[in-house]
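Internal ticket - ligand job 503, 2-acetamido-2-deoxy-beta-D-glucopyranose:
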Amino acid sequence: MKLLFTIYLLVAFNALSVLAQRAFIGLPTEGATLTRGQTFTVQLVRPNSLQGSTEVGLIIGLAPCDLFGPTPTCASPQSRIGSILFNGDYKPQFHEQPGRPYQNFTVKVPAEFPTGQAQLSTARFHLVGISNLNDSEKRRPRPNPLDLININLPHVPETGLTHDDEYYKDESDTGFCIFRVENTLFKVHKCYLLREPSIFSDLLSLPCIQGSKEGLCDEWPITLSDTAEQFRDLLWVLYATPAQLLLTEQYGAPSTERILNIAQLANKYCIASYEIWAIKRLSVLAQSPTGFLRHASPELCARALEVASLVDEDLQNLLIHRLIPRMLWSTIDCKPILAVAKRLNIPVLQGIAYYKELLKYERHEKWNVWRGAGPSEPQFPEDMDEKTCEGFMAAHNSLVRLWEGLRVSPPRFSADGCSDHSMCMQSWREMWTSATGSIPTQRHASADVLGRLRATMIVLKKRMYEPHVMPLECTMAAMESIASVRESIVEGLRDHFHGELNV
Ligand SMILES: *[C@@H]1O[C@H](CO)[C@@H](O)[C@H](O)[C@H]1NC(C)=O
Ligand SMILES: *[C@@H]1O[C@H](CO)[C@@H](O)[C@H](O)[C@H]1NC(C)=O
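stdout (structure tokens):
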């Protein structure tokens, strides 16, 4: 005997999902006719959604509709799924190109199913946004959460259970603490503040005054002296997942400003592990050829220097080392860095900032080169105070003398590796004299010792690497000697400027 069914097409509902990412039943089509005990194909199509979601499980059910009303009505699939035809994994795949991922399920109408209209529905369990599709394809199938619950533990009286020493937190550890920073209130889980020894753990373990509500409600917040942004950045790191801390590139790297705030506040509140994390992160960024020191604003570079001085000497030295070439050879405004260098007493950066400032006033007419005129003279703005003018003038004269001295005494280097050192030295002196007097070198202002030295190196490189000029070992030693002379000039720049100049 044939029993007729009408199958209504219904969309899936999502039991565990945060956002509805609806799959739909592609087959059978609405109004299809089935018989008791018949096997048929349910095709569940998954939309190509942008956001990744992880399938956890699927139930397919068939429910009879109410046949006795004026028009037959079916319960909403959320309230009634009916006889379960399938319960298992949902692993939609691409079968046709182009097409959408789907999976076919072969199911059977139960033998005792009532006749009449029925509705087919599915309940899909999936977790949205946990991973992208790529990851979920690589991972092992996600276990069903219900399988993880042990229902076989024997009953014991309450006295038979113990509280874990470390991980059975009492109320005071698991609650919140309210802070006011500027005009913003923050409600922070205490467990994050108590994770490791810090000023916060000291603060929260102080004996409470009976009835005190400090930190417990918006009216009585604990007030801190940071900025809201700094405190927010500290909380970001306290709440961050390991992936955010370790694999920062993939998981949205925190900005340099944020890392600086974290370093500063972790230091201030003595949260050692996060301070170490921030220092490591800043060192990596500072060493990277594309890191922030290459392009960040002078204000941010100055702030990095300031934070580094608080937290770690090696980091500070690294930043100084990396800032030197940027200050010397780019057009960066050195004033913000100079202000910090003065406060922290970093002579090398002060020297470079003053030197760059002096070069702004060096008027060097190109035709001087041709006419063999004497050294150029700086011209200072009219509103510059007398003491500063004098300071710069003295520095100008001192740097001009330094260059004159360099011209007549080429950098020395040892005979190591040179087959014929006296011949080598002879050629070196000749080349040095000619390169320091060359037009590219003389184009730089007379006090621009470093610009002149750089031009000299370029001229020398071109000549010395021509064959038969100098043995290679000798050439390399000569180049190294210029580099070390340059380094010592940079280190000593500050000494040419006496006292504090008003820049
Ligand atoms: C799924 O079922 C439909 C209908 O029976 C069929 O046309 C299709 O080829 C099946 N797809 C796969 C991958 O089996
Ligand atoms: C998925 O993987 C491919 C190749 O492995 C890659 O090109 C693509 O960017 C990845 N997509 C996501 C969202 O990670």
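Auto-summary: The chain is about 40% helix and 15% strand. The first helix runs from residue 133 to 138.
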